[in-house]
């Protein structure tokens, strides 16, 4: 039967223990020991964030815990994050807040996050401390790495892009952190690398790149670059770049160097997709004694029935090509476009050659371009025929799964912050949370889902 509830049945006093209300299988309880130990180790470095004057400042440990909660559960807006911590018992427990403790106001939280934290490398230190915890747990082997990039839509409208010469950076509304980072980056560009000016720039987030890589839709975006250890898909480094292939490939050198410097990890092999198979990058890997398990980008094959470059024999001792008719193709040594040598046959040899119509029907003499790093490309081609390469090709998918997990389970498809420093902070937090979840799964196993498992 059903009836009306009568009378005031509320209790005057409650005996409530927040610690006992959080299940042992809850994600936050499972990662809490690691986070607690890391924050204790970083306490001296966090001391600079405390203030002894003015209004009471937010505890930096509380900020880090709240940010971890936010990126664990896809709550990346400060206002909503403060509201959720106010209401959710597990969030309160993880943030070391009792039922009577006040949650920071969202405006104060935002000012501190965009001020003191953006100007420091504390989130990088937290990320690296988590990586060391994964290493201590035996989850990082250091033998094989994989690298890839995924485009994240910038916090900028795709309809408000402007040509570079149309933007006046001196007006008050352009005096932002993102604009300052962009203008500073122009002064730091490598003068030896010729870069085409961007077609469009976002006035509110000029560090982002105009790209059509993500979902085949043109937009402003950043490249989220992950370097993972393929044994357990632990992210060993992360780097933000504009969503441009050149920047993404170059960032891999930065991540590999930093990983060796910070953790003493240098992989024996690196797996990546074809976008990384340029001669310049392959030459860098071979020079650093890292086996490139990367498909070579090769445009030498012809589909018009004429002879391709592989029909010509390379004489390594003499440094020349030998054509099928035994004639020599030589180079002047001039490097074109920064990475290409041109080998030409003699016009007089080609004019009387019986294979001319099959070799160079539209030019007086045959020309073969050769990358200055062709030796590294040849090394990679030989590796492509090995079983280890085929295995790495399958293992490389683990980094792509990291991106899929981040977008599907963490709701991370569009940037919240602007500028490269904002992208850096967001990507570091995302990678930190993903490593913490992997660490909890590998050490403690999957969470219990039934009473029978709990009793076992």
Give an overview of the whole structure.
- The chain has 456 residues and is α+β, with helices and mostly antiparallel strands.
- 42% of the residues lie in helices and 14% in strands.
- The protein is built from 18 helices and eleven strands.
- It has helices spanning 18-21, 27-41, 43-46, 60-72, 78-87, 89-94, 106-117, 122-136, 177-187, 245-263, 279-287, 347-351, 356-359, 374-383, 387-395, 397-409, 419-444, 451-455; strands at 144-153, 209-211, 219-229, 234-242, 269-271, 291-293, 313-315, 320-322, 328-336, 340-344, 367-371.
- The strands form two sheets. Strands 1, 2, 3, 4, 5 and 6 form a six-stranded mixed sheet that branches. A five-stranded antiparallel sheet has the order 7-8-9-10-11, with no helix packed on it.
- Strand 3 and strand 4 form a beta hairpin.
- It is elongated and about 105 Å long.
- Mean pLDDT is 86; it is low at 449-456.
